[in-house]
């Protein structure tokens, strides 16, 4: 078993847009979009992430690309993958 | 009929509850609310509360048998169990643990209950999230049940093709029934399409009216053997089938659920129907746990009442309301409009329909379905029947 380089491209399996400030650390980002991303390069495993704006065009099946976020207080001191819609920048 | 050693062996003989208070406003501590509900259920059954020898609950309840026994004057605690995990997903399943204890001669009279008061146990929302959400939620701004369920429900609507009209009809039926229920917290809300659509968004696709909102309160049902039940009450609600659990592609790793848009009842539903010897076609009335609206639709699909594609043709408002609808659901107002003590109120209403004393009684209801916790890591279902269904 070894590490393999993959494209990182994902497919939106589902999504949601949060309007209510359930999580204080994210209140400044409201409304924000979460995506559940399916990873074709990893046996279609799914990862939860944030979809960065612009996200009006989000829909199931949309292609997304990852951005590695360093650990911050907002992410509970964990490095995470966030996403943007392929074709937007 | 089915060869089941479980079917019809146990019945509910008493129900009791406190008022449902706005969360954080109950005049008593949680333990006292719990005791009040148990005593009320014992009085309803015509039994001495001291004779209750079994205690069963679910979903982070902390009022275990050895914490209520002094208050009740319990002679002997012989059974005290919780269903692990799944939040309200264990609400119908707690009946299975109680019935199993009675059938296996571990206890004679078992109380199944749920109590919740913010002043004692904090927010239910926090208890559910803490026990249930993986490490991957909080770093991405997801903490509430609305967050966890919206992913499944959006998939149900956008990908599986369930019409949002079906979702809205389920919500409207709940609020419609609440208007006849003096116990319902939502009894004064006239939920029009306009009010629903213009209400505050919580997590898309959920508006505020799609969301159950936790109340302070407690509710209890008391079970005993069918033989004893017949001596105690005129119309016992016999437990024909009851199952809880999850299948192979389900459990803790919720974002891996397959399919994500399912209510999670595939195995539980099949097991329950098989045990009961009835199918969804024979059900007279259903109490469907609704944490969030669309998850209730998923439960109805799983239990066989419709498919994603014909949901709108089956789950329309007139069909979902008593007394004339073909599939009356949440006839007390349910988790959305009667009040939410982690789904426990559904059990009482399912029993009322068999007894004939629901605020929205379905004429001659004989088979009364109950589900617990759609889109939870563990779910449950039960079917109550009148004597003629045995």
Q: How does this model look, in words?
A:
By secondary structure, chain A is an all-beta fold. Chain A is globular, with a radius of gyration of 13 Å. Chain A is 0% helix and 42% strand. In chain A, β2 and β3 form a beta hairpin. In chain A, strands 3-2-1-4-5 form a 5-stranded antiparallel beta sheet, with no helix packed on it. Chain A has no helices and 5 strands. By secondary structure, chain B is an alpha+beta fold. In chain B, α7 packs across α11. The longest helix of chain B is centred in the N-terminal third of the chain and has 16 residues. Chain B is globular. The N and C termini of chain B lie close together (8 Å). The mean pLDDT of chain B is 96. Chains A and B meet through β1, β2 and β3 of A and α6 and β6 of B. β1 of chain A pairs antiparallel with β6 of chain B.
What does the secondary structure layout of this molecule look like, with pairings?
The complex is a heterodimer of chains A (89) and B (390).
Chain A: E1 10-18, E2 32-39, E3 45-51, E4 63-69, E5 80-85
Antiparallel strand pairs in A: 1-2, 1-4, 2-3, 4-5
Chain B: E1 10-17, E2 21-22, H1 30-45, E3 54-58, H2 65-72, E4 79-83, H3 93-103, E5 109-116, H4 118-121, H5 124-132, H6 145-159, H7 164-178, H8 193-198, E6 201-204, E7 206-207, E8 215-225, H9 226-232, E9 237-245, H10 266-276, E10 285-288, H11 293-302, H12 311-314, H13 317-320, H14 334-337, H15 344-355, E11 367-372, E12 379-385
Helix pairs in contact in B: 1-2, 7-11
Question: How confident overall, as mean pLDDT of chain B?
Answer: 96
Give the helices and strands of chain B as they follow along the chain: EEHEHEHEHHHHHEEEHEHEHHHHHEE
Question: Which spans of chain B of ≥5 residues are poorly predicted at pLDDT below 50?
Answer: none
Structural class of the helices, strands and pairings of chain A?
mainly beta
Number of helices of chain B: 15
Number of strands of chain A: 5
Taking the sheet with the most strands of chain A, its summary is:
5 strands, antiparallel
Strand composition percent of chain B:
15-25%
Query: What global shape of chain A is seen?
Result: globular
Most extensive protein-chain contact, per-chain counts:
A-B, 30 and 29 residues
Number of helices of chain A: 0
Q: Report the span from N to C terminus of chain B.
A: 8 Å
Please state roughly what percent of the residues of chain A sit in beta strands, choosing from under 5%, 5-15%, 15-25%, 25-35%, 35-45% or over 45%: 35-45%
Please outline the major beta sheet of chain B: 10 strands, mixed
Q: What general form of chain B does the structure show? A: globular
Residues in helices of chain A, as a percent range: under 10%
């Amino acid at each position: 078993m070894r590490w393999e380089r993959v494209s990182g491209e994902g497919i939106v399996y589902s999504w949601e847009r949060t309007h209510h400030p359930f999580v204080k650390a994210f209140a400044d980002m409201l409304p924000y979009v979460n995506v559940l991303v399916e990873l074709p390069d990893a046996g279609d495993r799914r990862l939860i992430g944030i979809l960065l704006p612009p996200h009006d065009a989000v829909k199931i099946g949309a292609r997304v690309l990852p951005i590695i976020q360093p650990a911050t207080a907002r992410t509970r001191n964990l490095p995470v993958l966030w996403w943007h819609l392929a074709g937007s920048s | 009929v089915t060869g089941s050693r479980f079917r019809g062996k146990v019945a509910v003989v008493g129900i009791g509850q406190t008022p449902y208070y706005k969360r954080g406003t109950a005049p008593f501590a949680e333990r006292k609310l719990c005791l009040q509900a148990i005593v009320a259920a014992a009085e309803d059954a015509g039994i001495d509360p001291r004779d209750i020898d079994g205690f069963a609950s679910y979903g982070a309840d902390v009022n275990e048998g050895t914490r209520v026994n002094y208050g009740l004057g319990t002679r002997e605690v012989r059974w005290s169990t919780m269903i692990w995990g799944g939040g309200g997903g264990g609400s119908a399943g707690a009946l299975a643990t109680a019935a199993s204890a009675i059938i296996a001669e571990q206890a004679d009279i078992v109380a199944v209950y749920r109590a919740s008061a913010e002043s004692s146990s904090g927010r239910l929302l926090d208890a559910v999230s803490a026990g249930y959400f993986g490490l991957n939620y909080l770093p991405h701004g997801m903490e509430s049940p609305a967050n966890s369920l919206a992913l499944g429900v959006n998939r149900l609507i956008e990908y599986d093709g369930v019409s949002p009209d079906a979702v809205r009809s389920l919500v409207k039926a709940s609020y419609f029934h609440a208007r006849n229920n003096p116990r319902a917290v939502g009894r004064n809300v006239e939920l029009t399409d306009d009010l629903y659509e213009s209400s505050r968004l919580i997590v898309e696709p959920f508006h505020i009216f799609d969301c159950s909102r936790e109340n302070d309160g407690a509710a209890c049902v008391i079970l005993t053997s069918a033989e004893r039940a017949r001596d105690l009450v005129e119309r016992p609600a016999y437990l024909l089938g009851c199952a809880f659990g999850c299948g192979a592609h389900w459990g803790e790793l919720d974002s891996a659920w397959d399919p994500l848009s399912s209510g999670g009842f595939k195995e539980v539903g099949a097991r329950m129907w098989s045990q009961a010897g009835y199918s969804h076609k024979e059900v007279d009335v259903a109490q469907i746990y609704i944490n969030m609206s669309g998850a209730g639709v998923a439960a109805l699909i799983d239990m066989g009442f419709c498919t994603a594609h014909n949901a709108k043709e089956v789950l329309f408002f007139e069909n979902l309301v008593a007394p004339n609808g073909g599939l009356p659901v949440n006839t007390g107002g349910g988790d959305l409009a009667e009040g939410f003590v982690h789904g426990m109120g559904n059990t009482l209403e399912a029993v009322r329909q068999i007894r004939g004393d629901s605020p929205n009684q379905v004429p001659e209801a004989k088979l009364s379905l109950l589900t617990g916790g759609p889109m939870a890591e563990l779910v449950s279902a039960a079917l109550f029947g009148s004597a003629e269904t045995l």
